Amino acid sequence: MVGLEKYKSKSRLAGLASEIWGQENLYCPNCDSPHIQETPTNTPAIDYECPRCRALFQLKAKASAFAGRIVDAGYSKMIRAIKENRTPNIFALHYDPTSWTVANIFLVPHFAYSLSAIEKRKPLGPLARRAGWVGCNILLHAIPPDARIAIVRAGKPAPPAEVRREYARLKPLATLDAKRRGWTLDVLNGIHSLGKKGFNLEDAYTLEAHLSRLHPANRNVQPKIRQQLQVLRDLGLLEFLGKGSYRLR
Question: pTM (2 decimals)?
């Protein structure tokens, strides 16, 4: 890419190349805008903005596939952003450092984070420039699989219409306040972990111990599970089949 020859640091070069590639190739999943535009330099936690709907995006890029987690910024800031509904959509870009080509990209919508998906990292040591600073990781296994929307898979782009359809299908989650949404996402993710599209109430109750660990203040987990199944049904993410049976949509 023109203009990148002056950079000697491989990580800096990769970061800049990824940002330029994103500006030239990424599009808005929330509306029909074919482009998103770069935000001013040093805009905290935001790399792009949609010029039409003003959706906000952050780009995370690395030379290996994203597996268990995405390294993010400050823990307290991320927790506050989730509670205040200020999280951006995140593009996670995996590139091949040999060929400088994009291998995979997936999108995590801004309404798909629960507090349980955020892992606190250890504080930086006393000799670090930012001694005591605490960062965080985004735990991918704590995000429902259908909220990790494929943009590029094995070098092949997904059709934009398909990406926008998946984003729109999940967008009703954005109508919930942050506290309610956390429970809804955790139950939805738990249902996916059952490994089957159709399930019944007894299957859902097997998630009780896991959900109790995520929400230790709640002493009535089974009623909460039933409540969240109704919420997911009303949002169109579950289909109620009758007699305590459900199906993922």
Answer: 0.90
